[in-house]
Every structure is written in C-alpha cells, then in structure tokens.
C-alpha cells in the first residue's frame, strides 16, 4: 500500500482561492520591514501568497492587500518583479 503524498495548499490573498503551493508565489516581509519576492518559498519572515496572474498582481497593488497582510509597505519594485515573473 503506497502512501499518498499530501500536496500543501495555500490561499491567494487577493482571490481567497486555495491552490497547491506550487501554483502561487510567496512575498515575504522581515521584521525590519524589508519586502521581497520569495521564489524558494522558504525565506524567513511573514509571508503572503499570490497567484501568478497579471490581473491578480495589479489588483493586489491597487488594493494594498499585501501591505495589510505583511504589515509592511510593499515597494513598487516588488510588484514589477512579480509582473516580470508572469511573463517569464
């Protein structure tokens, strides 16, 4: 009898939809308030997950949902990096 591997699920902070962790990108904020895109999903700090879709990233930027979730101000370059990952 083989053991079924559990797929970790995470919720997109914009759509509130649950996805497998691999379909989302993590944005983290350290205690110092440094916000960055966490491509590995293992960086220290408070994290929030976003679906890698242009419309969702733009909505997150407009509504400042990441600022609220991470309890830090998210700089413009983080959104630009996320948008760059969508096209990649």
Task: Summarize the structure in words.
The longest helix has 12 residues, at 76-87. This protein has one domain (9-87): 2-Layer Sandwich (Hypothetical Cytosolic Protein, Chain: A). The radius of gyration is 13 Å and the shape is globular. The protein is of the alpha+beta class and 88 residues long. The mean pLDDT is 94. A hairpin with a 5-residue loop joins strand 3 (24-29) and strand 4 (35-38). A 3-stranded antiparallel β-sheet has the order 4-3-5. A two-stranded antiparallel ribbon has the order 1-2. The chain has 3 helices and 5 strands. 32% of the residues lie in helices and 25% in strands.
Parts with pLDDT < 50 across at least 5 consecutive residues = none
Percent of residues in beta strands: 25-35%
**CATH architecture assignment:** 2-Layer Sandwich
This entry's quaternary arrangement is: single chain
Total of domains: 1
Q: What is the molecular shape? A: globular
Number of strands: 5
H/E element order: EEEEEHHH
Main sheet strand line-up = 4-3-5
The N- and C-terminal alpha carbons lie at a distance of 40 Å
CATH hierarchy class name: Alpha Beta
Q: Overall mean pLDDT score?
A: 94
Structural class: alpha+beta
Question: How would you summarize what this structure contains?
Answer:
This protein is of the alpha+beta class. The chain is 32% helix and 25% strand.
Provide the fold topology.
Layout: E1 9-11, E2 18-20, E3 24-29, E4 35-38, E5 46-51, H1 54-63, H2 65-70, H3 76-87
Features:
88 residues; alpha+beta; Hypothetical Cytosolic Protein, Chain: A; two-stranded antiparallel sheet; 32% helix; 25% strand; globular
């Amino acid at each position: 009898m083989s053991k079924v591997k559990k797929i970790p699920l995470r919720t997109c902070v914009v759509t509130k939809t649950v996805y497998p962790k691999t379909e989302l990108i993590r944005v983290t904020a350290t205690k110092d308030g440094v916000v960055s895109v966490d491509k590995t999903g293992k960086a220290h700090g408070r994290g929030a997950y976003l679906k890698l879709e242009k419309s969702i990233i733009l909505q997150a930027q407009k509504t400042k949902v990441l600022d609220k979730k991470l309890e830090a101000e998210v700089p413009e370059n983080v959104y630009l990096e996320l948008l760059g990952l969508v096209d990649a």
